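Field guide to reading this record: the first block holds the primary sequence, the second block holds the structure written as discrete tokens, and the final block holds curator observations. Each block starts with its own label. This record concerns NAD-dependent epimerase/dehydratase family protein, catalogued under organism Kribbella capetownensis.

BLOCK 1 — SEQUENCE
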Amino acid sequence: MSLHVVVGAGPVGSATARLLAAKGEQVRLITRRGSAPQPSPFQENGETAQIERVAADGSDAEALARHTEGAVALYSCAGPAYHRWPTDWPPLGAALVHAAEVSGAVLVTTGNLYAYGQVDGPVTEDIPLQPNSVKGQVRAKLWTDALAAHQAGRIRTAEVRGSDYLGAGAASPFSILVLPKVLQGKRASAPADLDVPHSWTYVGDVAQTLIAAAADETAWGRAWHVPTPDPMSIRALATCTAELAGAPAARISAMPTIALRIGGLFNPDAREMIETQYQWRRPFVVDSTAATVAFGIKPTATDDALRETIAGFRATDAN
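BLOCK 2 — STRUCTURE
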């Protein structure tokens, strides 16, 4: 049994901690408040019993290094508030690199596709990072800094990138703006072209890929795309949600960009979505062939990921 340190107890961090615990590993979960892993609607009793919870600031480099001492792997699964990425990610990223260097733990980071910028065609890992948004620039800098430390022999690292998430507790424009309305039988609206293909990544598959990349030294020094099923448009996803939930037929309309800009005057999350509209107004498809072949991870079917998303929402809504 080896020590694995997970920073962040959101959907990905919780799934990673639970999966490691189920494998019999020693797990230390670090959050600011010492929070428990987010429950899965399908988890078994006692699944999280051996997860040690620690209250600490992940951006405190020395504290994080102390908590990572003796660990074989350090998983970055934290997520600063969307509008605070430029201020909160740099110190957290630097602390993670420091902790990995001092402890010798492999650093595996949960990333996304923002750093590529606007891409024509499927997004593969060998596309140059050309971010066209502030958030994309932040993500690109985090990875290039970690990679530079890896190439200098200071740390060992890899990054695991997924598209918008499905799964218990997953947050995306779909899960926030569309899914609740569909389940309530109400009309939903999304700031997107509703009929273009879009990739959806299951949080459980992110956790599997993080753990696989940490354990395989041939996986270090590069980025990997989480095994992700064929893309599905927002309209098709909403239709599928209604069918799986036994809800009335989905009704959905496209929100014009101007409405998002007006909403951004009052809501920081809406404001931050404006610069990533290219991901929602045109095809946004991830190619995950490399990780599927390397790690043998078969992507979870979208229907199954949706069932968990629905169950998670209903469980939260009932409390």
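BLOCK 3 — OBSERVATIONS
The first strand starts at residue 3 and ends at 7.
Residues 158 and 229 are 22 Å apart (CA to CA).
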